[in-house]
Amino acid sequence: MSDAAGRMFERVDLARAPGDGPAAFGGGLAADVLLAAYRRGLFPMPAGDDYASAFNEARFEEAVAAGEVALLPGTPEDDPYALAWWSPDPRPVITPDGVRLGSRLARRLRNTLPWWTSADLAFDRVLDACADGRRPPWLTEELRAALRSLNESGAAHSAEVWEGEELIGGVFGVGAGAVLSLDSMFHRRPDAARVAVADLAARFAAAGGRLLDAQWDTPHVRALGATLLPRERYLAELATPAEVRPLAGQALPVSRLGRERAVPRRRGRPHGPA
C-alpha cells in the first residue's frame, strides 16, 4: 500500500462522523486506496448514476461544510459525491464460529446435499453474479477492477458453492488484519449464500482470522448470526495485530459444515422450522 493511499483517509474523523450516513466522499477507487479504507473501518458505496450523486450532494453538503463528513482529495474534474465511504455505528459482526445455519440446513448438509465449496477459485464470477441485477448498482466496473486487483494480491477473497460444475452461490469480501469485511453474496439455490458465508468463515478462522464484518445491520445478517459492535470497538479489532495466513482454497465437501455447525434443539422446545 502506498504512503499516499495511507494518508488519503487521515482527515476522516470517525469520532465525529455519523454512524448512519457517509463518513467521507471522494478519493477514487485505486486498489491501494480501497485497501487503506478497509483497514480504517471504511467501505465504498459508489453512486450508480448522476441522480444518486446529486442526491448525495444535496443531502450531505451541509455536513461536509461543517466538517462532520470529510471531503477527500481528488482531481478537479472529479465529482466527489459520486463515491461515498461508510463506517456504520454500530457495526454488525459475526465470529467465525458464529454463522448460523439452523438445524434443518445442517442436517441437509450432513446427509443429502451434493454440494462442494472452494475459495478464490472463481472470484470474478462471484463478483459478477453479485453485481447482476442489483439496484442500486453500487458494484461499478471501477470498483470491480479494484477488487480483482486485491484478490490477485491476496487481500480480497471469495467462497464458492458448487452443485457439480454449476456455481450456485458465493460471497466475497476484503481482509484487513484479523477482520474480513463481507461485501456481497448471491445464491441460485436456497441457502447457497448462507453456506458460502459459513465456508468462508471456516477457512478464515483456520487461517487465523477472528471476525467477519457484515457491514450493514439487516434482518438477513442478524439471521446469519451477526451481533452489533460499537464502532470504537470494531476499530480496535482492526488495529489489533494479527498474523493471518493465506486462505486455503481447496475443494471441500459441505458435509463438514453441517457437522461443525449442528445446533442441538433445546429440551422442551416445540418442533418446527429451524
Keywords:
single chain, 274 residues, alpha+beta, Aminopeptidase, eight-stranded mixed beta sheet, four-stranded mixed beta sheet, 10 helices, 12 strands, 22% strand, disordered C terminus
Written overview of the protein:
This protein has helices spanning 3-8, 31-39, 50-65, 103-111, 123-131, 141-152, 192-206, 219-223, 231-239, 255-260; strands at residues 22-25, 43-46, 70-71, 83-86, 91-94, 115-119, 156-163, 166-176, 179-187, 211-213, 227-229, 252-253. It is α+β, with helices and mostly antiparallel strands. It has 2 domains: 3-86, no CATH class; 91-260, Aminopeptidase. The strands form 2 sheets. An 8-stranded mixed β-sheet has the order 11-5-10-9-8-7-6-12, sandwiched between helices. β7 and β8 form a beta hairpin. α2 (31-39) crosses α6 (141-152). The longest helix is centred in the first third of the chain and has 16 residues, at 50-65. Mean pLDDT is 90; it is low at 262-274.
Give me a quick take on this structure.
The chain has 274 residues and is an alpha+beta fold. The chain is 35% helix and 22% strand.
Supply the number of helical segments: 10
Class per helix and strand makeup: alpha+beta
| CATH-assigned homologous superfamily of the largest domain | Leucyl/phenylalanyl-tRNA-protein transferase, C-terminal domain
Count of folded domains? 2
CATH level 1 name of the largest domain: Alpha Beta
Q: Mind summarizing the main beta sheet?
A: 8 strands, mixed
